[in-house]
Amino acid sequence: MSAGGGTKAIVAALAANLSIAAAKFVAFxxxxxxxxxxxxxxxxxxxxNQALLLLGAKRAKRERTPEHPFGYGRERYFxxxxxxxxxFTIGALFSLYEGVHKYQHPEPISxxxxxxxxxxxxxxxxxFSFRTAIKExxxxxxxxxxxxxxxxxxxxxxxxxxxxxxxxxxxxxxxLFGVSMAVVTGDGRWDAVGTLMIGVxxxxxxxxxxxxxxxxxxxxxxxxxxxxRIVGALTGGPEVPRVIHLRTLHLGPEELLxxxxxEVAHDDSAAEIARGIDAAERRxxxxxxxxxxxxxxxxxxxxxxxxxxTPDGTPA
Length: 316
Hints:
- The N and C termini lie far apart (54 Å).
- By secondary structure, the protein is mainly alpha-helical.
- The protein has helices spanning 3-31, 34-59, 75-104, 112-141, 146-152, 157-185, 189-218, 224-234, 270-287, and strands at 243-252, 255-263, 291-299.
- It folds into two domains: 3-218, Cation efflux protein transmembrane domain (Alpha-lytic protease prodomain-like, Up-down Bundle), CATH 1.20.1510; 224-299, Alpha-Beta Plaits (2-Layer Sandwich), CATH 3.30.70.
- It has a three-stranded mixed beta sheet.
- The protein is built from nine helices and three strands; from the N terminus they run ααααααααββαβ.
- α1 packs antiparallel against α4, α1 runs parallel beside α6 and α6 (157-185) packs antiparallel against α7.
């Protein structure tokens, strides 16, 4: 994912959520609807989350230091994880608390026309934000399914914005359902039901985001296709007959560490081995431009010892 694409989707979502949050708070003042209050807090939390993503992207661009020799690329993963925490603690828990409270102490919806007007406006604004996130994601998603893209993307911003926008749209539908049923039936508990539905939705999205960003924080390898290209590049010249083993690690969405033990001929000189390693590194960087840090260890290939062999490799 290009940084520009992710930033465009984040800014679009931030602009939509700020305007929607203001409108929802106005509607809450006039209606005293718990669904509207939950949606107001939801939009404020989303706005804060988009600001965190922008902050993470900026901090990740800092130059490497002796204390952080591989740079700060993973700051994007850290701030995406914070987004999940904020979404759960502020959005989900508040909505669940407010829903339970209003279910136990229901109140009628006053001035429902404000709620309907704001919810319709918010749905239209969220559709435009969601459309931007979809367009930017399609530029990098390839033939992956949406779920696979969210699960496997090494760039956290677009999956986060996609899930937030989807959650926002569904939350608005739930709020519209709760307010409508409360107005039609005259029973304020329906408003509380809509609020509880919003809380459960936000909690589910927060859990998915937390699990995926936790995996990125711990450290994920490159995908199978990328690793195949790396192996192909390493063995694409006469200097490297075989890759004995390969390890990859994402230092950030656009920075990959490659460590490999490669076979060299037993009679190669040190100078020949060094030239071969340099050539192999150039091929890898050409095939996988995000391979910024490459460590290649030359070795002699040894066939795996038979199962019944002694520790020194001779037959038992």
